[in-house]
Amino acid sequence: MTVIPESHLDLLARPLYAHLATLMPDGTPQVTPVWAIWDGEFLRFTTTTDRQKGRNASARPHVAISINDPDQPYRYLEVRGTVERVDPDPEGAFFDVLAKRYGLDYEAPVGDAGRRVVLVVRPTRFTSQ
């Protein structure tokens, strides 16, 4: 059973930008706009092993995302969760999935494919408006 409310699943079904919050080594938050996909159990994001959000999520697995509805700006979904695993994506296959979802026209494979990983987040709580 998911913690995501049915009333806000549309925000995860649409290719909207999420803002991913991770924790820096000193405990302060770091927020990055990201592409996301929801499979009904996990939220997934792509990054590289050398980007701050990837390093933060690997070291400190508590994260949060927020997505607002561009058609109703005060309608939003915030999801808190835990990075259950960081899956290698050395061919950039998951990047390709997200690039298609978000309409990015580029020539595969992505240039940093060898450093690509997938952050797999299990939602634990949400707030919404």
From TrEMBL:
- Tell me the SUPFAM superfamilies matching this sequence: FMN-binding split barrel
Pyridoxamine 5'-phosphate oxidase N-terminal domain segment(s):
5-126
Write down the InterPro entries for this protein, in alphabetical order: F420-binding_dom_put, F420H2_bilvrd_red/Heme_oxyg, Pyridox_Oxase_N, Split_barrel_FMN-bd
Q: Name one GO cellular component term.
A: cytosol
Q: Which GO terms describe its molecular function?
A: coenzyme F420 binding; oxidoreductase activity, acting on the CH-CH group of donors
Which Pfam family, an example, fits this chain? PNPOx_N
UniProt entry keywords in alphabetical sequence = Oxidoreductase
Q: Which NCBIfam families match?
A: Rv1155_F420 (TIGR03618)
Q: Which PANTHER family match?
A: HEME OXYGENASE HI_0854-RELATED
Q: What is this protein called?
A: Pyridoxamine 5'-phosphate oxidase N-terminal domain-containing protein
To which species is this protein native? Streptosporangium roseum (strain ATCC 12428 / DSM 43021 / JCM 3005 / KCTC 9067 / NCIMB 10171 / NRRL 2505 / NI 9100)
